[in-house]
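FYI - complex with 2-acetamido-2-deoxy-beta-D-glucopyranose, inputs then prediction.
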Amino acid sequence: MFSLSRLVKRALVLIPLGFVILIFLWSHGSKENGAVLKRENVRHSEPVDTVNSISDLSRRPNRQKTGFHSPAQIAIHPETLPQKHDELTLSKLKNKTLLFWDWNWNPLESKFYDLMEVRHCPVKACKLTKDRSLVKQADVVFFLNGQSTPKTGPTYRHPSQRWVWVEGESPCHSRRLDKSWDGLFNWTMVYRADADVLLPYTEIAKRDTPIKKDYLSVTKSKRKLVAWMVSNCKTPSRRMDFVKELQKYIEVDIYGACGPLKCQRSGSWGWDTTCLDLLARDYKFYLAFENSISLDYVTEKFYKTVNIDIVAVTRGNTDYTRAGIRPEWHINTDDFNSPKELAEYLHMLDKNPEKYVKYLEWKNEYRQLPDRAFCHLCERLHFQKEPPKSYSWDELNAFFWKDHCLPPTDI
Ligand SMILES: *[C@@H]1O[C@H](CO)[C@@H](O)[C@H](O)[C@H]1NC(C)=O
Ligand SMILES: *[C@@H]1O[C@H](CO)[C@@H](O)[C@H](O)[C@H]1NC(C)=O
């Protein structure tokens, strides 16, 4: 029999349960899945031809067009900065106040207040603070995307104060800015090479003294081919689908939440190199596949392989040279017509250690270092005269979100 009281009882249990499930799905799914729905279909594809060696790679026409340049040069205009700072000038500088209105981002964590020291900035006269009561004297105020609105922002704004929009995620995973920010931001600060202030995931620097590692003998002890460590299985870039296809032609060992293998973790997942260090002993290649396909979106997935004896296979479908990453430093899925062709290339390198080590030898001369975005910014605030500017909402939207979360075209 149909009992009303039983129905009510059930509803009392099921409705809150449904709520919990909905909230769970929303918080876990919105990042990855919502973005898939939002993305715009505008990917242009370039014709790709077969690549058989590194020298072929560097001869590829699309490589020559871009060439090597440091994005920092785009962002800080070094020609307008003094080549060298004399001690007297430096000692006379008044501290600039950099206020982080909302910032709970780990790159700064414990070292936050000493950042200028920790990073050995040439110009250290900047005081980093999260103390909102200093807003009147702040030279720059940073807003990490999506956390505040002008309503919850400062109530006072000094005319010469710069407001900076900051983002670290790809546009696929970043909420579009509230329209009430229209006209209020002066600068953008993000990993994009064309940002006002470049905030890369990290930097690659030339070593003062090159090391001389014998990579051929390093290679001899590697018994396996491809490793991938991953915790987000479903992403806008559909990297899992790519890997599944790749696995038909080459063995790929998947570690982490999306695969059968486990590797002892320590520290934060993204930057945990302990595990990767272990993998580097056994594996020749590491899949540095981004979760999103978006202009200049190159993250720790690549950078964490730099100081380690493993070759990164990158998939970001973006021009890595804009981040200062040269073609001969990684194997880029963009250079192959299919996962099958990529697998053939990896097999070829496996059989030709002298070709394989070419992808490691650059590490003798370069290494990965924490980014010095705030050093550059501080120097610039002191030494670079810049005309005022601000961005409309439309401009920011066109710069970062609109048509910038792209669907994959290689699977
Ligand atoms: C500037 O800030 C630094 C770091 O907080 C501090 O050590 C230094 O004394 C300050 N300099 C001036 C001139 O206020
Ligand atoms: C920053 O933006 C505000 C608001 O548009 C503007 O009034 C101010 O002149 C800008 N300042 C600088 C230094 O660009």
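The CA atoms of residues 16 and 22 lie 10 Å apart. DSSP finds 15 helices and 13 strands in the chain.
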